[in-house]
């Protein structure tokens, strides 16, 4: 475990800079760096100690970054499709509303599983649209603490909901909100 922490300390900043050059979004770059180290941890018994670890690490970071681009392109196409339906006058049916209510209930249930502080910070960020700095000032805590709470909350929600549910929720929010 100590060796893993040392690897993180040695490479995380460089990986962050590498990913940020492609992504241009700090939060996404941080998430990718975390994801890369999770993948390294999960594959720790399979790593070839005789090959270049640095090359292996940056390859994982690059591939994870490309995967995010693909995911975003798919999401963008989906959103464009939804906008087109909306502009064409398509309206959600009762099934969509029922699904929205179920998904909304699931999200609320998951939010209730967060610590009270995480939930408060997450809702200030997402529902009220406050920046990390604004939340930090309001709650008298550091912006870094806010950032970590939001990242942990997002990771928790992401781990507990599959992407098809997220797309359904997105659809429902666009048409039923």
UniProtKB/TrEMBL annotation:
Biological process (GO) annotations held by this record are:
DNA-templated transcription initiation
Which key words tag this protein in UniProt?
A: DNA-binding, Sigma factor, Transcription, Transcription regulation
Output the superkingdom of the source species: Bacteria
Q: Which GO terms describe its molecular function?
A: DNA binding; sigma factor activity
Pfam families from the xrefs? Sigma70_r2 (PF04542), Sigma70_r4_2 (PF08281)
- What InterPro entries does the record tag this protein with? RNA_pol_sigma-70-like (IPR039425), RNA_pol_sigma-70_dom (IPR014284), RNA_pol_sigma70_bacteroid (IPR014327), RNA_pol_sigma70_ECF_CS (IPR000838), RNA_pol_sigma70_r2 (IPR007627), RNA_pol_sigma70_r4_t2 (IPR013249), RNA_pol_sigma_r2 (IPR013325), RNA_pol_sigma_r3/r4-like (IPR013324)
Q: Where is the HTH luxR-type domain?
A: 111-169
SMART domains in UniProt:
HTH_LUXR
Q: State the family it belongs to.
A: Belongs to the sigma-70 factor family. ECF subfamily.
The identity of this protein, by name, is: RNA polymerase sigma factor
What is the organism of origin for this protein?
A: Mariniphaga anaerophila
């Amino acid at each position: 475990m100590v060796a893993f922490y040392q690897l993180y300390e040695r490479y995380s900043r460089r990986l962050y800079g590498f990913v940020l050059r492609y992504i241009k979004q700090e939060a996404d770059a941080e998430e990718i760096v975390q994801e890369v180290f999770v993948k390294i941890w999960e594959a720790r018994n399979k790593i070839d100690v005789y090959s270049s670890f640095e090359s292996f690490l940056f390859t994982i970071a690059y591939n994870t970054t490309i995967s995010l681009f693909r995911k975003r392109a798919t999401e963008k196409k989906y959103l464009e499709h939804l906008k087109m339906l909306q502009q064409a006058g398509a309206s959600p049916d009762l099934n969509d509303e029922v699904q929205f209510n179920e998904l909304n209930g699931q999200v609320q249930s998951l939010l209730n599983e967060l610590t009270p502080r995480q939930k408060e910070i997450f809702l200030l960020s997402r529902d009220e649209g406050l920046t990390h700095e604004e939340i930090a000032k309001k709650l008298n805590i550091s912006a870094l603490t806010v950032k970590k709470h939001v990242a942990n909350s997002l990771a928790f929600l992401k781990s507990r909901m599959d992407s098809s549910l997220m797309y359904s929720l997105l659809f429902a929010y666009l048409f039923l909100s």
